Amino acid sequence: MTHPIHIVGAGMAGSEAAWQAAQAGVPVILHEMRPQVGTFAHRTGDCAEMVCSNSFRSDDDVNNAVGQLHWEMRAAGGLIMTAADRHKLPAGGALAVDRDAFSADVTAALRAHPLVTIEAGEITALPDEGNWIIATGPLTSAALGQAIAAETGADALAFFDAIAPIVHADTIDMSVAWRQSRYDKGETEEERTAYINCPMTRAEYDAFIDALLAAEKTEFHEGETAGYFDGCLPIEVMAERGRDTLRHGPMKPVGLTNAHKPGEKPYAVVQLRRDNALGTLYNIVGFQTKMKYGAQTQVFRMIPGLQDASFARLGGIHRNTFLNSPTLLDDRMRLRSRPQVRFAGQVTGVEGYVESAAMGLLAGRMAAAQALGRDLLPPPGTTAMGALVHHITGGAEAKTFQPMNVNFGLFPPVEAKSGRRGRKDRYPAYTDRAKQDFQVWLSAQ
Q1: Helical pair 79-86 and 99-112, crossing angle rounded to 10 deg
Q2: Is 277 annotated as a binding residue?
Q3: Last residue of a domain, one of 272, 293, 314
């Protein structure tokens, strides 16, 4: 008889992992600490409770990476997407749901499955044997978090993270910005041009500081507060300490020469650093912030060169337990030091309901394949699911790894069939290729 897979956490990832493994014919024990042990964000003990938005974002599987991820999860018989479609609400091009009905549906489906057992209670240690998936999300309990930290090293597990905004490289105006590392540091041309620099005049800097200080900020949730440390101060907190603090900190103009105006010294410079191996995404260095998302877009587009910027992710500072997955997990999502343990969901460094559920889907299928004596390769990187798992298990820079939503910047570049290079032409090329490659991956199982 096949030994059961133990899954810790019945959120989006854990629920999907349990469903996928059970559908493959492997018994599952799903451990959930709620409601015995609560969190500041959850209200119930139901599976897949939506604690923030009730939206799964865009459902456009032709022009949007999130919509393509929806398509792949539906193609794989995902429980989360089935329940979401069943409880869909009018939301334009987005997939929004009745959150309570959705969660109740997921819970009922898992409880009714003959191979799924839901056990209440907190898991406080990493197992020494068996076949386990840890899908505890950003609100991992203190005891389990300490056990993970003890196994991985405290530096490899973030309990409170600072997130800098990430920009799609092809939306940066390079007629204003230029590539150069500070003081031209580096042994190769690639290293010497590793940063993209956006210059500011004094007037532009002063206007930026005024907008930054006036922008609407978010507050910490109860139970989420933590003291700032100087290594990740929000930029607005730095600006509050003095108008010149930023230009003597992350926006210092020293060691840089504007390639477009070499005789004109910038008053301040905003630097962007490559965030993925493909060079399609750049993060704004030192720009972690508690500004609300709408304010971030307005303020950051005041930066010369970013006036038309498209953001793959906006900034933030919040409680979010996640692994430095590129250094800790293999491409089967297993902990390298304990291969009997897989991780799934937000704890792996993905952001969002859909991304979390997708990583649960993969972990569940991979764990089931192992239980049945097989090995399941991850989907190809040309698919939404494959691009995401590749990013968190090796494609991202480990030193700057932060949670990420799925986006086309994670996909290998593709040329549109017409040969045109506009995003409207490329997006369908990405999704056409992804659908074809995902179907091939599915059919091989």
Answers
A1: 130
A2: no
A3: 314
Average pLDDT of 193-210? 95
Shared domain for 149 and 215, answered yes or no, is no
Tell me: do 250 and 289 sit in the same domain: yes
Query: How far apart, in Å, do the first and last CA atoms of the chain sit?
Result: 21
Tell whether residue 92 is among the known ligand binding residues: no
Alpha-carbon gap, residue 169 to 255, rounded angstroms: 23
Residue 229, pLDDT above cutoff 60? no
10 annotated as ligand-binding: yes
Closest by CA position to 11, among listed 40, 38, 46, 36: 46
Cβ burial, residue 159 (10 Å; 0-12/13-18/19+):
middle
Question: Does 9 carry a binding-site annotation?
Answer: yes
| Domain-terminating residue out of 314, 346, 362 | 314
Q: Are residues 76 and 220 in the same domain?
A: no
Q: What percent of the chain has pLDDT over 90?
A: 61
Is 137 annotated as a binding-site member? no
Is 373 annotated in a binding site? The answer is: no
Cα diameter, the chain: 76
The string of pLDDT tens digits covering residues 143-197 is 888 898 899 886 656 555 566 788 999 999 999 999 998 888 877 888 788 889 9
Average pLDDT over residues 94-119: 93
Q: What would the mean pLDDT of 328-353 be, rounded to a whole number?
A: 93
Helices 12-23 and 99-112: angle between axes, nearest 10 degrees: 30
CATH classification of the domain holding 341: 3.50.50.60
Those residues with Cβ within 8 angstroms of residue 163's Cβ, 6 or more apart along the chain or in another chain: 288, 313, 314, 315, 316, 317, 318, 402, 403
Same domain, 131 and 20: yes
Find the domain containing 121 and state its range: 5-159+321-443
What pLDDT score does 271 carry? 92
Residue type, 226: A
